[in-house]
């Protein structure tokens, strides 16, 4: 070993001897918090217009939360105020309690031909299909345009001479039906004209709804029109339509102001509520009572709005109320009544705005609806206390029956004189595409859910870099123009610029991912800012694996600033990713040669030595590593010895290992018994007799070490008396004389008696039990164990001198000796207590034994009789003779077949064993005939008898 290493070990020893005498940064709010406004009255909301639409802001109290800023590595914590990082003063990105609310929709005006049309003709209604938009005007025109406002002049026709009241488009988009104030119904085809027609009514319909399957093959062309009554119109021959009244309203019901047709359900609303007509049942199945407060203007000017959320759920918006209901089948209904349905109310909401139209937005992961979208007006007082009408676009998320959460509440710049002019506002939507078209007499605006790029841009514009990075990484496949990597780099750069190094380090994995060059760039950045330890716990060690210089720079920083972190890094990092030799040189210099070592605490020095031990293992310098582990009294040395098979290097330090952990050392010695003899081990630990005993115990458990039985007896007698008797009983390889000498010296009488019995001096052992110990029960057990008549006689002779002993002997030994031999030796003058009862007990025991023998004999005889009877029954049972049965002598068939019948060829003999014989075969010779005759007379088969004799 070199001189420097020896010096290091000497220093380590000094530190270990002295060891017994040893005994934040404020976090910031997450930029600008994104919130959901639950009520417009809970905060002061105002609007700010951006390039991507409108956003809302509100003022309220913001509470700052603080926590300690540190880097953790296992159980190691690095305070941000240590020498390897800079303290950052408290900052806040939230100014004056104002929090920015993230917009969910972006708004844009429909341009191209739309502004020109609305400038010369006021809009009166709208209908939207995924192929086109239809806008009706007060002059009777219906303009067909695409979703961007490009007019299709070939499909634009003046259908009415008065205002167009409503347009209804069939599901396929091939036809639409409109009604106007001129009492006409116009059916018009887009690209086809088979069913195009003008129908004159006797009344001006207030609403119209076309069948979803109007142009479907093999279906009937139908639509409904509504004024006071609801009428169904079905196309017949020669372009005529048959009218059927589905609902006939009364005066109190008022005018039907809205209709909708979905699947087989037709919904219509008048003053008394909303009814749902089921065409499959041909009757009205539901009535939804209006839940409204009548406003101070004519109710007829407020138009109800229908929106089918799914096949059985309808949302109705009217005035300032929204009702959501579902049609469900009745479960307990009589079979004779057919199918019946009932309506269940899901939600009933009251809003602080008047509703023009409603729609919904679907859930992102399913086809179910998530939010209700509302388009309406609200009255608000300006600074001059003058009431102004505001056009609102609101999305609501349900909570319970009567409560909801306002997710979006945006004010739109649309012209309207008063809030009561709500009948001038219209909205139609394509929910599956998240497109909402809002129309007034002169304005046409489209709302669209913000795309992933829009949201990321909004985050960036409002300096919400963290949110931008997280959202970009989460929806990376939805981004078209932006790169999440560039956003992440921008975010990390801003944190480094603000000296928020811990936060920057924690986000490096998200930003850098598997980009090796980017990781190495930020390692250099953190090193330039003297905060390299902040990045330690986040550095990747594989996929990607960085250059060795990156890891070495972190290790060196930890060595000089945080020894505990240095140890954790050495322990967790593979030595293949850095140059361990260079780190060893620096670590030895750190604790020995440098002046800075004087400023290290004892714990820091011990930690560096533990790190050095691991580094030596990485460099395959096992001897140095073992010396360090042993001197540090680190139990990891046992794992190191086993893992690297280093037992030969610690043969001379067995006593130190025993002092460190006896159990682990003994297990190590036993598993490597071939490398170090047992005698050598016992010699090295001779100063530690308890360790010798523990070692021998493990040897004996493995059936080894019998030659050390005498040593074991001495150790058990001295330190573990409880084990001694068990060891003497199980072991026979010890010197009995030495063992007796030890037991006599230690006055272990039980063990001495056992040894006397094993050595053959049983009478002496018996004498000790009776006279010295006065343990008659033990003496009886001793005689019973040896089962020697002379020993029993000696015990009887000893017992007759004491009446109590005679009583014990008669009571316990009646089953092993003749009680009469004891009674005969009792002196006639000796008084024996309770003798009569003892004799009675002996006689009863004898009687019980005789009775038990008789019962056993009876049971045996009964079993024999049963078995004999069974045998006789088997012997008396008939034997089967078949065509394949053969004579046991001549081997020919017993039964012969001729042309007419089957018959037995000759007289035969049949035995219970199923052997068959021809009688003539028994007369072949006199000797054989005599044998067979005798066997027949005795009832035994000669073949079976011969086999049994051969077996015997």
TrEMBL record:
Domain of life the protein comes from: Eukaryota
PROSITE patterns, per database record: CHCR
Entry annotated with the keyword Transport: yes
Keywords: Lysosome, Metal-binding, Protein transport, Transport, Zinc, Zinc-finger
Pfam families reported in the protein's UniProt record: Beta-prop_Vps41, TPR_Vps41, zf-RING_Vps41
GO terms, molecular function: zinc ion binding
Subcellular location: Lysosome
Assigned GO CC terms: HOPS complex; late endosome; lysosome
Any one of the GO BP annotations: macroautophagy
Sequence ranges assigned to domain RING-type in this UniProt record: 887-944
CHCR repeat spans: 666-808
Alphabetized InterPro entries for the sequence: Beta-prop_Vps41, Clathrin_H-chain/VPS_repeat, TPR-like_helical_dom_sf, Vps41/Vps8, WD40/YVTN_repeat-like_dom_sf, WD40_repeat_dom_sf, Znf_RING, Znf_RING_Vps41
PANTHER family: VACUOLAR PROTEIN SORTING VPS41 (PTHR12616), VACUOLAR PROTEIN SORTING-ASSOCIATED PROTEIN 41 HOMOLOG (PTHR12616:SF1)
Protein name (Swiss-Prot/TrEMBL): Vacuolar protein sorting-associated protein 41 homolog
């Amino acid at each position: 070993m070199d001189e420097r290493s020896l010096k290091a070990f000497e220093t380590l020893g000094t530190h270990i001897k002295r060891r017994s005498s040893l005994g934040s940064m404020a976090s910031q709010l997450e930029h600008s918090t994104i919130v959901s406004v639950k009520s417009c009255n809970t905060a002061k909301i105002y609007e700010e217009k951006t390039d991507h639409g409108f956003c809302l802001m509100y003022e309220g109290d913001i509470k700052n939360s603080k926590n300690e800023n540190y880097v953790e590595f296992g159980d190691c914590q690095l305070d941000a105020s240590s020498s390897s990082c800079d303290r950052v003063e408290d900052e806040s990105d939230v100014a004056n309690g104002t929090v920015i609310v993230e917009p969910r929709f972006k708004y844009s005006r429909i341009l191209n031909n739309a502004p020109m049309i609305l400038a010369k003709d006021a809009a009166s209604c709208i209908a939207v299909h995924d192929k086109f938009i239809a806008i009706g005007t007060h002059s009777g025109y219906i303009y067909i345009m695409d979703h961007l406002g490009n007019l299709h002049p070939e499909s634009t026709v003046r259908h009415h001479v008065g205002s167009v009241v409503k347009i209804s488009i069939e599901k396929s988009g091939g036809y639409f039906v409109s009604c106007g104030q001129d009492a006409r119904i116009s059916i018009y085809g887009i690209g086809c004209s088979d069913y195009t027609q003008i129908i004159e009514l006797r009344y001006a319909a207030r609403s119209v709804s076309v069948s979803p399957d109007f142009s479907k093959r093999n279906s009937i062309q139908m639509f409904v029109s509504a004024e006071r009554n609801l009428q169904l119109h079905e196309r017949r021959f020669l372009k005529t339509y048959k009218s059927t009244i589905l609902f006939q309203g009364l005066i109190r019901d008022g005018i039907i102001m809205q209709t909708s047709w979905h699947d087989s359900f037709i919904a219509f609303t008048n003053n008394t509520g909303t009814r749902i007509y089921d065409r499959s049942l041909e009757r009205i199945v539901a009535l939804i009572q209006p839940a409204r407060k009548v406003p101070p203007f004519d109710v007829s000017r407020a138009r109800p709005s229908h929106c089918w959320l799914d096949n059985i759920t309808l949302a109705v918006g009217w005035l300032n109320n929204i009702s959501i209901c579902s049609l469900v089948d009745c479960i307990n209904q009589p079979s004779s009544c057919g199918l019946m349905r009932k309506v269940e109310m899901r939600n009933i909401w009251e809003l602080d705005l008047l509703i023009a139209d409603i729609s919904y937005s679907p859930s992102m992961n399913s086809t179910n609806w998530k939010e209700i979208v509302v388009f309406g007006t609200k009255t608000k007082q300006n600074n001059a206390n003058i009431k102004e009408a505001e056009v609102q676009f609101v999305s609501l998320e349900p909570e319970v029956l009567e409560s909801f959460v306002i997710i979006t509440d945006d004010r739109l710049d649309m012209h309207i004189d008063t809030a009561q002019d709500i009948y001038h506002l219209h909205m139609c939507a394509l929910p599956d595409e998240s497109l909402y078209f809002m129309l007034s007499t002169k304005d046409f605006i489209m709302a669209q859910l913000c795309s992933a790029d829009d949201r990321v841009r909004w985050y960036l514009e409002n300096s919400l870099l963290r949110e931008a990075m997280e959202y970009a990484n989460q929806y990376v496949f939805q981004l078209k123009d932006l790169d999440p990597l560039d956003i992440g780099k921008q975010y990390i750069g801003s944190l480094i610029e603000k000296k928020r190094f811990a936060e920057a380090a924690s986000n490096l994995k998200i930003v850098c991912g598997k980009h090796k060059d980017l990781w190495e760039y930020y390692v250099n950045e953190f090193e330039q800012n003297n905060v390299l330890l902040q990045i330690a716990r986040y550095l990747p060690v594989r996929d990607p694996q960085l250059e060795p210089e990156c890891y070495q720079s972190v290790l060196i920083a930890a060595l000089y600033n945080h020894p505990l972190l240095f140890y954790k890094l050495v322990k967790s990092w593979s030595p293949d990713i850095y140059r361990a030799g260079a780190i060893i040189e620096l670590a030895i210099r750190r604790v020995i040669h440098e002046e800075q070592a004087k400023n290290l605490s004892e714990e820091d020095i011990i930690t560096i030595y533990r790190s050095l031990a691991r580094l030596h293992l990485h460099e395959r310098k096992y001897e140095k590593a073992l010396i360090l582990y042993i001197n540090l009294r680190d139990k990891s040395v046992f794992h190191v010895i086993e893992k690297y098979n280093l037992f030969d290097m610690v043969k001379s330090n067995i006593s130190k290992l025993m002092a460190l952990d006896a159990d682990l050392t003994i297990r190590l010695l036993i598993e490597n018994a071939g490398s170090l003899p047992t005698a050598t081990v016992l010699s090295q630990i001779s100063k530690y007799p308890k360790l010798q005993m523990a070692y021998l115990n493990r040897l004996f458990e493995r059936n080894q070490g019998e030659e050390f039985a005498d040593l074991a007896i001495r150790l058990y007698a001295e330190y573990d008396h409880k084990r001694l008797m068990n060891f003497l009983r199980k072991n026979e390889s010890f010197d009995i004389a030495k063992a007796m000498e030890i037991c006599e010296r230690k006055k272990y009488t039980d063990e001495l008696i056992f040894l006397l019995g094993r050595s053959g001096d049983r009478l002496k052992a018996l004498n000790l039990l009776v006279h010295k110990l006065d343990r008659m029960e033990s003496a009886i057990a001793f005689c019973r164990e040896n089962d020697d008549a002379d020993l029993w006689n000696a015990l009887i002779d000893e017992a007759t001198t004491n009446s109590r002993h005679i009583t014990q002997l008669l009571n316990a030994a009646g089953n092993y000796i003749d009680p009469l031999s004891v009674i005969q030796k009792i002196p006639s003058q000796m008084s024996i207590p309770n003798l009569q009862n003892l004799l009675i007990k002996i006689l009863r025991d004898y009687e019980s034994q005789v009775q038990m023998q008789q019962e056993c004999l009876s049971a045996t005889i009964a079993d024999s009789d049963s078995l004999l009877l069974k045998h006789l029954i088997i012997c008396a049972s008939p034997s089967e003779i078949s065509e394949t049965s053969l004579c046991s002598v001549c081997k020919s068939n017993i039964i012969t077949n001729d042309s007419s019948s089957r018959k037995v060829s000759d007289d035969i003999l049949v035995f219970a064993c199923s052997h068959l014989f021809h009688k003539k075969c028994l007369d072949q010779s006199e000797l054989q005939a005599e044998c067979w005759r005798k066997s027949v007379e005795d009832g035994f088969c000669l073949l079976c008898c011969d086999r049994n004799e051969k077996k015997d």
